[in-house]
Amino acid sequence: xxxxxxxxxxxxxxxxxxxxxxxxxxxxxxxxxxxxxxxxxxxxxxxxxxxxxxxxxxxxxxxxxxxxxxxxxxxxxxxxxxxxxxxxxxxxxxxxxxxxxxxxxxxxxxxxxxxxxxxxxxxxxxxxxxxxxxxxxxxxxxxxxxxxxxxxxxxxxxxxxxxxxxxxxxxxxxxxxxxxxxxxxxxxxxxxxxxxxxxxxxxxxxxxxxxxxxxxxxxxxxxxxxxxxxxxxxxxxxxxxxxxxxxxxxxxxxxxxxxxxxxxxxxxxxxxxxxxxxxxxxxx
Length: 284
Hints:
Blueprint lengths: L1 H8 L7 H111 L5 H16 L1 E9 L5 E8 L3 H4 L1 E3 L3 H9 L3 E2 L15 E7 L2 E11 L8 H26 L7 H5 L4
Antiparallel strand pairs: 1-2, 1-6, 2-3, 4-5, 5-6
């Protein structure tokens, strides 16, 4: 009996077919859902990886952009610094140009003053280098031509009655036209009568005439006129007189008169130097 019972109970150890199918179906659904879940996890992981890659790329771009902005800011600061240096250098350059201009201007002034002094020295030396009237007149003519550019002129001494001016030396002008000149009119007469220098500051002095001379220099001794130097016209390239010419005119007015009178008196004295007594008598 026990054998029969054992044989009769053996089939009850196997699950029923319905349960088996349900179990298998559950297992299949479990694994299918697990597979789906796994696949979804893998897809999400892939999507996250792609997103991470995108973020890394964007982060790289942002870093590059930030680096570029930093470099740009550094470049802008460098440019601003260079602009500041450039402006400073420009200001220094302008200041140096101003100093250079002042130096050049002063240098030109000094050169002009030295040239004027040289002319005055040469003129004085030449005027008093001879005790011969003829040589003095020749020196006056050379000074007028070389230092003043005179082309047509005459040196005049007043007549004894002071009514006319008599030419003692001429150059470049017909002597007959200028041998004597009246003292009662025109620029020449006024310069002699007043003892004041005259020169044309408005017109081309190379085109002067006897009636409208370029310049008239009164010859003075102790402030009194004894004659004039009349410049009727200058060389074509000498169209105007300047301040240096004015200084030379004044020197000629004083020194030429002295040189002429001294030479004349020395000649009249037989070209003999007075004895010492003549100088001692001056103290009385």
